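Quick board copy: two proteins, each given as sequence then tokens.
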Amino acid sequence: MEYQWYPGHMTKTVRELKEQMKLIDLVIEIADARIPMSGRNPDLDSLAANKVRLLILGKKDLADEAVTNEWLAYFREQGLNPIAVDLRRNADLKMLNSVIRESCKAKIERDIRRGIMNRPIRALVAGIPNVGKSTFINSFSGSSSLKTGNKPGVTKGRQWIRLKNGVELMDTPGLLWPKFEDPGVGEKIALIGSIPDAIMNTEELSLALIRRLDADYPELLSERYGGDLPEDPAKALEQIAKFRGCLKKGGEADTEKAASLILDDFRHGRIGRITLERP
């Protein structure tokens, strides 16, 4: 299956970001902890060249904790400043404030030497669609100023949000890149819901998920869907449909309904804590 999605507003956003980047002190990149590498836009490296960077692995409560720790170690070795968070935990949000200020310590000290006091830290919040950028800003700011939704494309334009702690955040629409050279990258991005299901073949996408879970988390798959499943993903999907009562008239398995169900179960952590790639 072809995995591509690059609507026109993304091209416009990239152009605007190039113009705005001179105003930015810090680039906060939000990535989904379930796909920490595939879910990072490679174009951000050139857009944010010479800027202080902070990498946040969000939705850590949905990801395999042991694998998340492997990724944090990997990114530290690459010279990045990574942190994994659950945006529903106040402790994680409080920690972020000190991490942001520590990341910009050199900038703050430089301002003081120049006699510039209390100039806010201007941070760009970036990432692919549906990784929780607006949720992060709302949680971090303690308000609900930004519209959020569990689907890609909710944020359409950039917005500045001024916080009380001397930080200004710029929210941006989720950005993909024009072509996924590796189809496996596109598949993983689609699985977490960063490409609209409406343009996907959800049955094919659910079969890809079953293959991945059967290889890496077979016990979670069995526990959620009633025991051992056939090795053939298509037959496994049929069995899941019957187990969950997804039936058409005459008792035939409704695999389309079951496909949506298993994708939703994965995205909301009902199958278990799962990461789709390792360092």
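And the next:
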Amino acid sequence: MPESVSQIIRERAKCIEKGKLFTISDFEDLNNDSLVTRALSRLQKEGAIVRVATGIYMNPKKTQFGILHPTIDQIAQKIAERDKAQIMPTGDTALNILGFSTQVPMNAVYITNGAKRKVKVGERTIIFKNVIQKNFQYKGKILPLIIIALKELGEEHVTDVIRNKIIKFISDSNAEEKSTMMHDLYLAPVWIKELLLPIIKTTNQ
């Protein structure tokens, strides 16, 4: 392995923000994926970096309780970024991400316009199901997630606690996200529109 390139990979990997996920594609400017793969594998064996899933690495962030691991959703989003694909969580996964449910599904299921696949992460599995492009008509991120979760939950199960969480998610959204909300709300079922419209109008004032 050419020492100069190997050293570049080593130094760059160590300089990546602790806890941030990265992949081989983050080194694509070096134009040698096989070399990067071997270098990262060596760093992993040395304990300098952690492999959290196939092809997904992390400069470990250590706490008094051990290494702080990324969430399943963070890993899924990084895989989508690497593959230049769009993904959206399905019902149970969306409920868990938003904290509407404390149940952690063994399989985190996403729909994608990329390749279908299964990725093992510890004892859990991320499943990407391939769908057609029209399933990705949303423009924002947080409101579609809320809409998907509410569809799974059902109107009769929306408690005050969940409603307050929705208010906080929408209130804390940045200006760019808020600018897409009315478009995305138009794609929601009537009962969800009636629930979310007053919240969006109030928080966007």
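Board note added afterward: The chain is about 45% helix and 15% strand.
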